[in-house]
Amino acid sequence: MKLLLVHPGPLMYTKIYLRLEPLGLELVADAARRAGHQVALLDLQVEQPEAYLALAAEWRPDAIGFSCNYLANVPEIVDLAKETKARWPDVFLFVGGHSASFVAEELLEHAEGAIDCVVKGEGEPAIVALLDALQEDRAAIASVAGVVSHLGQGPPPQFLHSLDECRPARDLLRHRRRYFIGVLDPCASIEFSRGCPWDCSFCSAWTFYGRSYRLVSPEVVVEDLARVREPGVFIVDDVAFIQAKHGLAIGEAIARRGIKKQYYLETRGDVLLRNKEVFQLWKRLGLEYMFIGIEAIDEEGLRLYRKRISQSKNFEALEYARSLGITVAINLIADPDWDRRQFEVIRRWCLEIPEIVNVSVNTPYPGTESWRTESRRIVSRDYRLYDIQHAVLPTKLPLPEFYEELVKTQQILNRKHLGWAALKSTAWIAAGHLLRGQTNFVKMLWKFDSVYDPKLQLADHARPVRYQMAPPPDPSPHANGALLYIHRAKGRQSRAIDDDTEAFVDTSRTGTGL
């Protein structure tokens, strides 16, 4: 069969700080190709909808799959599906991805028949079974694991048997030089592990994967990395190097192969402090940038988001990263209950530290525990506002003032790390990018004011709403694990970590019993 895979357009923050290659779609594409299907891939982060329609008209795929990893992309995907179905009624249209898994039934309802099914869970095993079913009889899709359609719901989604089975089909992307994160321009993405064993209340990584944690073998990682042409590499793991021996094994294999890259990764402060030798090795290999989700600068905030790590440990982790010469980006979560004083406290703190500080908005998402336990009334169910940059809970300040304070706080990042300030400190890097024809990093330096504007954010609330997600259930103190998970939780056997690391994880989570 001919399969076209499509990634939707950019979100608010991706217009400035990063634009990552659609690694998940590349892995699904590889699985489909290995099964003998013809595959094309289109990324609307870097192309226009007209390019999608032109490719569909020219290539005439039998099936089109949309990736939906972010709720804010739902209206775009539904509208594209409707337009596609109107032009080519016989094409089979489906949606998969992280967020789609949590709102599958709603997607089908919004699409009014334009979307034939939604695939919940991991895409690599599902795509082969789905295409096989389509070749036999469209009605057979109802029996495919993870598939939700108007014909019914198939068995629970299945995990890919081994993460070593698929490698990204990077050759299918038409504009690889358009991907970057910060100064890493261009930048590829790579996966070392999948899943997260923690249970932060605001996050849906652990609910999607059933608190599992699986590893790609070092040999496969290095072979994949050796084929990457970009000088920058973003490691997409939710928490990098939880299992120290795995991080060391990959690093040592990279050193033996003599692979030279610059790396950016995400991790936790307590993981950094626990596995210092891993991060020391990776610094020597080219680790330049690290993202740590601190989320709050007080103990009350840490309890709210169920980050069971003390504030002193977080600050110790920042000090240690500085000692290694690693540039750190921090995420803080602004709660809609904040008043002017709390915003001012955060601003003063941000100015006192050298790290890059990003401020997002506390947003209960379907799939998170907070979606089911948050007692405050959701004030908007417009998918487009679920991008961690808009307030969907009631704000203590009048909404215009909340956005003014939020953007005023985010402006610190702009003053310290963007514009002329950034260009002065990275002039030689920027010049090198421009000499190679790379403009992503330089262009981002002056985009902040055009994207982060309180008036624009407020205006987003006034836009007509065509698609609304279903309201959350009545709040309860505890969430039912059976209702949270996409992939079934299998406990300790699903986590590829040793007993000492399992004990560390257990002592650094609040323990929901899930």
Keywords:
514 residues, alpha/beta, seven-stranded mixed β-sheet, six-stranded parallel β-sheet, 41% helix, globular
What number is the mean pLDDT?
Answer: 91
Q: Order of strands in the sheet with the most strands?
A: 3-1-4-5-6-7-8
Q: What is the radius of gyration computed over CA atoms, rounded to a whole number of angstroms?
A: 22 Å
The percent range for helix content is 40-55%
The number of strands is: 17
State the assembly state of the protein chains. single chain
The general outline is: globular
Biggest sheet features: 7 strands, mixed
Which blocks of ≥5 consecutive residues have pLDDT under 50? Answer: none
User: How many alpha or pi helices?
Assistant: 23
End-to-end separation: 40 Å
Proportion of strand residues: 5-15%
The helix-and-strand class reads alpha/beta
InterPro entries: Aldolase_TIM (IPR013785), BchE-like (IPR051198), Cobalamin-bd (IPR006158), Cobalamin-bd_sf (IPR036724), Elp3/MiaA/NifB-like_rSAM (IPR006638), HpnR_B12_rSAM (IPR027564), Methyltransferase_Class_B (IPR034466), rSAM (IPR007197)
Domain Radical SAM core: 182-396
GO molecular function: 4 iron, 4 sulfur cluster binding; cobalamin binding; metal ion binding; methyltransferase activity
Organism: Nitrospira tepida
